[in-house]
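Checked the freezer inventory, then went back to the computational side. Two predictions to log before the end of the day. The first one is the construct we discussed on Monday; recording sequence and tokens without edits.
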Amino acid sequence: MSVPTPRVSVVLACYNEAEHIERSFAEIRDTLTQTGWPFEILLVDDVSRDATREILRSIVESHRDLDLKLILHDRNQGRGATVTNGFRASRGTVAGYLDVDLEVHCRYIPSLVRAIEGGADIATVQRIYAFQLGSLDRYFMSRGYSFLVRHLLGVPFRDTETGYKFFRRETVLPLLDENEDAGWFWDTEFMARAARRRLTVEEVPGAYIRRRDKTSTVSGLSDSARYFRQLLRFRRTLKEGSP
């Protein structure tokens, strides 16, 4: 049976996602199925140390009716590289990714796809933080970082770090060749380079609800200091005339 060319490609970059990957995949699958669009899902694992790979293999095996692709790294490459490798293997006119934990729900995918098909080069979710006492630290870190990005890099967007980005694949693939960071700074660099290319970006508001049933990998002070150093280095790179 021939597989139709997907209208939408969704990349799920995985690293130690065993706690929630099955439930998240089911919700993403259902959301995409309800659109009626031909779609593919690319599951990219960056050498997880838990049971993620076994679960991903099981998902692919039990969903032979879906257009799924499993990509397994043989060495850890970082979040940015994992997302990029998924994009390079995608076939859809519109390609994107979202964080697997679904702290911003997959229900926003159709809105981002429609924004792209309406003329935007890139569509992202701008996270709106639902009031949760336990999320105040994440809120202030995110808002503070966004302030620094806008003022140090001259980037006009409200939420460069959102793990929820879709784009017109053929337009943005060349931008992936310019990105140098393979880790968590990938998102900031990607959006800064998009701004320099004057690509059209639409930010769609979406509720961020922190999950209490997952193990957090964020370390407030150390991560904030590391991101600030990377911001300063990248600012120097831009000033020196890097594309």
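The second is the one RB wanted added to the comparison set:
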Amino acid sequence: DRLGMRTILEGYVFRQLAQRPFTLSFWVRSSLTGTYCVNNFNSGIDTWLISTFTVDVADTWEKKTIVIPASLSAGTWDYTNGIGLYFDWILMAGTDAHGTAGSWSNTALKRATSAQVNFAATIGNIFQLAGVQAEDGYTGTDFEDRPFHQELSLCRRYYQKSFDYGTAPAQSAGVTGASRYRVQIASTTAGYDLHIPLNPPMRAAPTITYYNPSAANANWRNTTDGADSGAAATSGTIGDSGFTVQNPQAAGDGAGETIALHWQASAGL
């Protein structure tokens, strides 16, 4: 058994650190002192590294800095838009997952050393991370606090939505921000294809989920009549820079009426 917290670097990001030493720094706060492990491994899960750090004082924020040795060229690595490198902060690992820290290995994946604390042994333990940063070289600098708008733009490579920033995607969440068009030919005579651009382009062709702005289903909504239109269907190719969604329309859709639909696009690792 094992327990931990994970973040992943995309291949395009990791390749700036690949096969060269880099520094991992972070702040940690835990109710349980002792030795913890960070487990790095590649997309093929055939090359891995265990590093250790110590929580010295319970319930106190402490900064930790770990120098990660240059990764191996051997193994199955992704240096493009896939998984470049896993970062697992280990909280508990069974004996079958124990290995040696300090150097990369191509043997069967191990997660932690035998010194790893068993965080799961006591109900109510708390483990928190903040300010995680990976940098080229042997020295970690202060965490880079980017402006909100810049951070949001970077996040949009992996996730976008038609809803306002503060609105969680859901059925019947209102028309604000929804993609929409005006009916040119009434009823189901022609249907309609609407191309929706993605800005910026996403990591890969995303998975699209649709939401009716005013009802508990995934149909388009005729906001003029206050009635559902046709069921949303993706037509053509979904790409990293946009997708096309089709509406076959409903019998009651009249020329000049407005049809709306919400969506989310997910391309996370």
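For RB: The mean pLDDT is 96. Helices lie at 11-14, 148-155. Let me know if you want it refolded.
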